[in-house]
Amino acid sequence: MYKIGICGAHGTGKTTLVNELNKELQLPIIKRTMRTLWEKFGIDDFEKIPADIRANFQKYALINQIDREENEGKHGFITDRTVLDNLAYTKLNADMSQSDFRIYERLVKERLKNYTHFIYLPIEFEVEQEHLRANIGSRRQIADIIENYLQAWFTKGDYLITTGSVESRVNQVKLFLKSKHRN
């Protein structure tokens, strides 16, 4: 059973990759988690919300991501947002006490073990600002945070960094799935 997490800053092609992979894998898709929450709560610009409210929202978003993975994906899934993405946005945008953040961080680190395959999409191309997408100006900061956690928490071969065209990325992921399946 595959539990595939696609991770990366906004506008890196996570949803596109999930949709393409799913044509072959036929797994339940967990996507648009954050956008769906923003729509539900009427949020147009997350950065304009007071930092303490953003912290509470991020806690809710993490619980929602875990809940969706557990319920919608109990027999496998592929998601275009992972708990690590959530942690990166929380670290950058939320006003949380240091002790609360450390607990949050430990929860995310433990939860990462639930993914059978973890794939990271670095920033490779520019994108336009889009409704219900985090500020494009924060992309590099989010990517840096994610990359720091990947280096600290994962060992080489435990995750895939995929680059190139959509077709190239799909092929890289398929090889990764096969190689991790044998191990």
Q: What is the helix content?
A: 40-55%
Mean pLDDT: 86
Question: What's the number of helices?
Answer: 7
**Low-confidence parts:** none
CA radius of gyration = 16 Å
Count of spatially separate domains: 1
Q: In this structure, how is the largest beta sheet organized?
A: 5 strands, parallel
Shape: globular
Instruction: Tell me the strand percentage band.
Output: 5-15%
What is the count of β-strands?
A: 5
- CATH architecture annotation: 3-Layer(aba) Sandwich
**Strand order of the biggest β-sheet:** 2-3-1-4-5
Give me the secondary-structure category. alpha/beta
Order of helices and strands: EHEHHEHHEHEH
CATH superfamily: P-loop containing nucleotide triphosphate hydrolases
Q: Whole-Å distance between the termini?
A: 14 Å
CATH topology grouping: Rossmann fold
Name the CATH class: Alpha Beta
